[in-house]
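Hello,

Our lab assistant flagged a job as stuck in the queue for most of the afternoon. It eventually completed. Since we weren't sure the result was trustworthy after the delay, we are filing this so someone can double-check. Below is the sequence as submitted and the structure that was eventually returned. Let us know if re-running is recommended.
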Amino acid sequence: MTVATAWHVRGSYFESCNCDAICPCRRVDGVAGGRSTHGICVGVLTWLIEEGAAGGTDLAGQAVAMAIRYDDDEPGSPWSWILYLDERGSAEQHDALEAIFTGRLGGDALEHFPWAWKASELLAVRPVAIELDHTPRRQWLRIRDHVAVRIRDRYPGAETVSCVIPGHERGGEELVADELRVDDGPLVFEVSGTCGYAATFDYSG
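-- returned structure --
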């Protein structure tokens, strides 16, 4: 019998993808979004956990990132993704974070993570050195040899924007990225001047 593990994580979030700002998948002034700008979306998502635990495992201070790809014209638009976990974490922390961010522990993950409710492909789980800064409008991420993201500034429009991953129930800010680069096995892309987004998150299950 499988016993569910109670979990809760909260903190700050930012992302960038190859879509033009404002990313078409956002909810803009309360109106639901649609197709990605180019039909194929590639990007990077990051979470910095300020407070959290799964069962008896403390998750405060842990960083999590993902490199992703999906095609709007592929039936069901399944995500292909790589999960990056902070190498400074323990094996217990890595196990808990993998279970949360793959959606195996259920809860809010099944409301916020498209890769968890779709038939998607997890390409790899990598414990790596994650360097990141979630300073508003100057966010950046470095995963040596694999990922680089650098935010330029906020998007200048006055629209109200929200994103399903941190949650439409909380406010966020549309951003513009100076750099978005991934070079990791089947996921290879590099763009500049595309969209970004930042918000807080608070998930549990």
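-- support follow-up --
The delay was a queue issue, not a problem with the job. The result is valid. The first strand starts at residue 7 and ends at 17. The helical segments are 91-101, 109-112, 114-117.
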